[in-house]
Each structure stands twice: as structure tokens, then as C-alpha cells.
Amino acid sequence: MPKLVLFIASSLDGYIARSSGDVDWLFTDHDYGYEDFFANIDTVLMGRKTYEQIQLFGEYPYKGTQGFVFSRSRGGERNEDIEFVSSGLTSFVEKLKSRTGKNIWLVGGADIIQSCLQQDLIDEFIISIHPIILGEGIRLFRPPLAIKNLSFLRCETFNTGLVQLTYTCQPELDNTACSLLVHL
Questions:
Q1: Is the separation of the CB atoms in 155 and 164 below 8 Å?
Q2: Which of 37, 94, 98, 114 has its Cβ near the most Cβ atoms within 10 Å?
Q3: Helices (DSSP H) in 11-141: which residue ranges?
Q4: Total domain count for the chain?
Q5: Is residue 152 situated within a structural domain?
Q6: In-domain check, residue 92
């Protein structure tokens, strides 16, 4: 069964973008596991603001995947790359998870991440922490959130200082190894 995976970059102080939405601080010198991750994805899910930011990058980067953008104002619209969805996040994600196929990538942003956390929809967290302190911006995890203990899967370090942490919500794994408290 497909999992909903949050694969995202964060500054050391917990921001996923500058206040403007800009991500010019992200490392682009290595792959950082992206190609392997993307090979196991067939669906992307994101919020409207993230989609609009992605549009500024030029060509749509997730060709070959089924794309869904959650938007209160554009529900029902579609183009060759994505379909806008306006309501029913929980039932929509549960329906995606019930089908056969590859995993679902929760691309961002902060609003949809918070909603997915509140509804306990995220199955795996892959967070690449960049060695930079932004001081302000768009937070990865915004209050209010309940404490959520996660099971540690792995940690990969890179010579650039980037650290990639992977956690799961699977209850059958040993929760004593490490927990990420979503208070970054």
C-alpha cells in the first residue's frame, strides 16, 4: 500500500522557505537521495502556495507523476500536470493510500503539512536539514501541534553539513531508538 511521505528540506532553525516563499538557500550541489526517492513516487500532493512557487522555477519538475494541489479557491481546475482539489483532505489521502502503486509525496507547504499532521496522515518523514539559520520564514511545523513520537529509521550525513533524517509512524517499529518532537 502506498505511504504518504513528507520529503522536505529545512533550515537548522526549522524554516522551509523565506517569508517570501523563496528557497534560494537550498543546496543544489548534490542529489541528496532525491533521484532514488523520486523513483518510488507516482503521486505528488501539495498546497496552492507551494504550487505557485514551483511555477516560478520554470518547467514543472514532477512530470510523469499524478499531481494534486489543495486549494480552497481553485477546486476542480486542472491542467496537464495537476488537478486542484478543494475539500476532503483526509478522505482524499486515504483514497490515494488505498490504491495500488508507488508512494505519495507530500511536497509542501506549511498549511497542508499541518493539516496532514493533525489528521495523522503522514506515514514517513524524510527531512533534510541544511546547515543554515534563516532567522525567519515559513516554519516546517507550526503550532498548535500535538506531540507525535516517531520511530527512527536512519540518518545520513553529507560532507556539505546537510543531515537527512528519516522517521516513520509505523507502530510496529521500536520507538525507543529516537523520537522527533515536532516543535522545531
A1: yes
A2: 114
A3: 34-39, 48-55, 89-98, 110-118
A4: 1
A5: no
A6: yes
* Buried-exposed string 47-67: b where 16+ CB fall within 10 A, e elsewhere: bbbbbebbeeeeebebeebbb
| pTM of the shown model | 0.90
Query: Domain containing 74: what range?
Result: 4-100+110-141
* Span 128-183, pLDDT tens digits: 999 999 999 999 999 888 888 999 999 999 999 999 999 998 654 444 444 444 44
Cβ(25)–Cβ(119) under 8 Å? no
Q: Is 142 helix (H, G, I), strand (E, B) or coil?
A: coil
| CA 141 to chain CA centroid, nearest Å | 11
Interacting residues of 7 by C-beta distance below 8 A, sequence separation 6+: 37, 105, 106, 107, 126
12 closest CA partner among 31, 27, 28: 27
87's grid cell: 475539500
* Structural domain contains residue 146: no
CATH number at residue 115: 3.40.430.10
pLDDT digits (tens, 9 = 90+) for 118-140: 999 999 999 999 999 999 999 99
pLDDT tens track for 15-62: 999 999 999 999 989 899 999 999 999 999 999 999 999 998 889 999
Question: Which three three-digit cell numbers place residue 95?
Answer: 483514497
